[in-house]
Amino acid sequence: VHEVARKLSTQLELQPLLQTLTDAATRLAGAAYGAFFYNAPDAAQGHYLLFTLSGAPRETFEALGMPRNTALFEPTFSGRSVVRLADVKRDPRFGRSAPGFGMPPGHLSVTSYLAVPVIGRGGQVEGGLFLGHPRPGVFTEASERIVVRLAAQAAIAIDNARLYERERQARAHAEAASRAKDEFLSLLSHELRTPLASVLGWAAVLRSDVSGERTAQAVEAIERCGRAQARLIDDLLDVSRMVSGRMHLELRPVDLAAVLRSALDTARPAAAARSIRIEADLPPSLELPGDAERLEQMAGNLLSNAVKFTPPGGHIELRLEQRDGLAHLAVSDDGRGISPEFLPFVFERFQQADHAHTRSTRGLGLGLTIVRHLAELHGGSAAVQSDGEGKGATFSVTLPLGPRAPDPPR
Ligand SMILES: Nc1ncnc2c1ncn2[C@@H]1O[C@H](COP(=O)(O)OP(=O)(O)O)[C@@H](O)[C@H]1O
Ligand SMILES: [Mg+2]
């Protein structure tokens, strides 16, 4: 047992650890076969049952399906008690509910039966160790003691393996975040460089333009590039304020419909340049507590995305309505849409569907992060819906119409 305990404590990966445990328990208890059934967290289904085996090929078990929570298994999976039986088939408590692990006749028949729960530090049942033998009366009190001690050692080792795994995942997450930041830096340099190159180009034109013919054009271009660059920097400042929790809004009564009309006016020239039609369905007015400038920024980000990610000739729709004490704002387009894989990440910082090096559009990937944060600062939320690539997208923002009710006293 000592030897095995040492071996268990050096193993940091769950699967081989459980194999060591199952093999050792089977061998030390003199069992013909052993199995360890355990719950593993699974993102999709919550939990699912896994197992490691000793003394029998995996196929024989897989063909039989998993043990159900029958009367026989209940004391083990609930962590209540050890079950040791000289002949499981004759035991009055379990009757026919345990036809030897549910084995078909002639296959891995189980007569002697020993089942020990493995209980973690926090009292949670990690799983159950099941041992069997075709002959009756194989498992003695001594073998029970050995297996119980093994189970206790295993519980500690499993806890450690889980800690190690969590640590490993946290590290992988941090590394990915750091990589994303590196990529963002190169993207940022590029995005800041482009308007600057234009400004310098037009400055050279101005210098050599003795006749003054192109002065107006040059000044206009310089202004446009300067504004574009200022917008990028404003977004950066906003995000850094958001991240450090320094963005605060002063909410006062605002007519959201008027704010949206103003955002529309700003978006129309860019849409017209791409032959994109914008339709608006707005009430004459809709008042709510908000920050007019920030609300316009939010709508502007959604509209400029819709214009950017919709091919020429496309349509955009801006809707605002009041429902269930909330303002519902939606921007829909029939543009390139969003793949189901990318959909969960659209609101994340630095995230863009296109790869930085190959993409056809510009931007820092901060617009939607800002949209969501502003919606939340208003006590609302932001959401996205898209049926997939090429199927268009709808971004919606929901905002409360009145100040949030204070939390009821407990
Ligand atoms: N209307 C839209 N249609 C399709 N994809 C969109 C739309 N709006 C946003 N996206 C996707 O979400 C990403 C993040 O958007 P955003 O945060 O505004 O950053 P940026 O516009 O700088 O790329 C975009 O790069 C794009 O991949
Ligand atoms: Mg954007």
What does it look like?
This protein has helices at residues 2-10, 14-28, 58-62, 74-77, 141-208, 215-243, 256-273, 292-308, 367-377, and strands at 33-42, 46-54, 83-85, 112-119, 125-133, 252-255, 277-281, 287-290, 315-323, 326-333, 381-385, 393-400. By secondary structure, it is α+β, with helices and mostly antiparallel strands. A five-stranded antiparallel beta sheet has the order 2-1-5-4-3. A five-stranded mixed beta sheet has the order 7-9-10-12-11, with helices on one face. Strand 1 (33-42) and strand 2 form a beta hairpin. Helix 1 (2-10) packs parallel to helix 5 and helix 6 crosses helix 9. The chain starts with a helix and ends in a 10-residue tail after the last strand. The structure holds adenosine-5'-diphosphate and magnesium ion.
